[in-house]
Request: fold
Amino acid sequence: MNSVYISKTIASICAGLGLLLSSCVSHEHTNNKISTDTSIAVTVATPSSEVQAGLNISGRVEAEETAGISTRVMGYITKINVKVGDKVSKGQLLATISNEDILAKRAQTDAMITEADATYKDAQRDVERFTNLYRQQSATAKELENVNLRYTSAKSRLESAKQMRNEVNASLNYTSLIAPFSGVVTQKLADVGNMANPGMPILTIEQSGSYQVSAAVPENGISQVRQGSAAIIRISAVNKVIKGTVIQISQSSQFSGGQYMIKVQIPDHEKQGLFAGMYANVSIPAASAASVVKNDQVMVPLSCIERKDGLTGLYTVGNNNTALLRWVRLGKVDGDQVEVLSGLGTNEQFIVNAEGRLFNGAAVHVKK
Reply:
């Protein structure tokens, strides 16, 4: 009796355990199904690690010609006719310097010229008269020689006085500062009433109409640059991509901190919307196959970057199939790609697209 009862009890317990296990399995399967159905589908990629054929450098837009307007005389600035941003024409009067002392000197030289001219004309008449008298044997050779000497001296004094007036006029011209070419005033470095000293810039003018990019090339990349080479200029401030040409290459880095300065010309039809000082990225294709170098930069699409409280990051997939926001430090921008300096390895995957709103810890699954 007891044996039969014990056997039935054991059988009941086993049956109960079986139902419990079946229920657990069924519940776990249901949970997994719900988790998969509610997770966000994402597409992942690895940073680009292609071969780089060329050189990528940074530079700034500048006018092809810039002039600092200064004077060669000392004096107070009496008038400035322009302000920053004004457009000026070649030959336009920009500023004036006090010139009372120079005008006084010119008056003195004019008086000297008048006196010297009178002496010269008198000596010239004496030469003509004594020449006739000498021919008539009414004057001696010594007298004629003395008259000729006086004439030569008077002529020299007159010429000296005229040259002094030319010098004064040249100094007077430096008190009126004019534009050497048509352009735009970009700097005003002094005000009316300030003392102008020789060589001290008062205004800066940039030529309008033509722009170029000035960029620094490191010494390990200057061999890839050739004069006349094509270059791609990207100016993010105005969202423009321009085809330019290398027009100048510095042959020395002595005064530029080990960097070689190059100039890349911007075509005139691309100048619309550009301003001097804008930052630019310049890409120069390799001059030969030997110049092709392995690109060890970590580049990711700009569209993947998340910005929050001054920090930058991107989403990766964690071990438990959840979105993980990883903070990274960014470098230079190249087109629609940006360099990741730290925070992401070359072989690590990151999320490039999501079919839903991502947040830290969101359940995700990678699309096949």
